[in-house]
């Protein structure tokens, strides 16, 4: 069970947060007005370490936080 969870986390970090966070940033840049609350993973972290190796995943979490702040103020 633990190995499966680690594999899912690795897949999630590698695919989901990279693409979802960037797509949210792209959407924010093409829309006007405040957006309110946005749920996100890896907020404030542009890179996240893999729990099984030294590999870093680019999650663009800080870039997303900056985009939300810019959009709301």
Briefly summarize what is shown.
With 73 residues, the chain is mostly helical. The chain has one domain. The chain is 55% helix and 8% strand.
What can you see in these coordinates?
This protein is mainly α. It has one domain. It contains two helices and two strands, in the order H-E-E-H. A hairpin with a 6-residue loop joins strand 1 and strand 2. The protein is elongated.
Classify the helix fraction into a percent range: 40-55%
> What would the principal axes of the Cα set say about the shape?
elongated
**N-to-C SSE series?**
HEEH
* Helix segment tally: 2
Number of domains: 1
Task: Please report which band the strand proportion falls in: under 5%, 5-15%, 15-25%, 25-35%, 35-45% or over 45%.
Answer: 5-15%
Low-confidence stretches: 1-11
Strand order of the largest sheet: 1-2
Kindly report the oligomeric state of this protein: single chain
End-to-end separation: 44 Å
Secondary structural class: mainly alpha
Question: What Rg is obtained from the alpha carbons, in whole angstroms?
Answer: 14 Å
Mean pLDDT score = 76
Number of strands: 2
Largest sheet: 2 strands, antiparallel
What topology emerges from the helices and strands here?
Layout (H helix, E strand, L loop, with lengths): L1 H28 L17 E3 L6 E3 L2 H12 L1
Keywords:
two-stranded antiparallel ribbon; single chain; 55% helix; mainly alpha; 2 helices; 73 residues
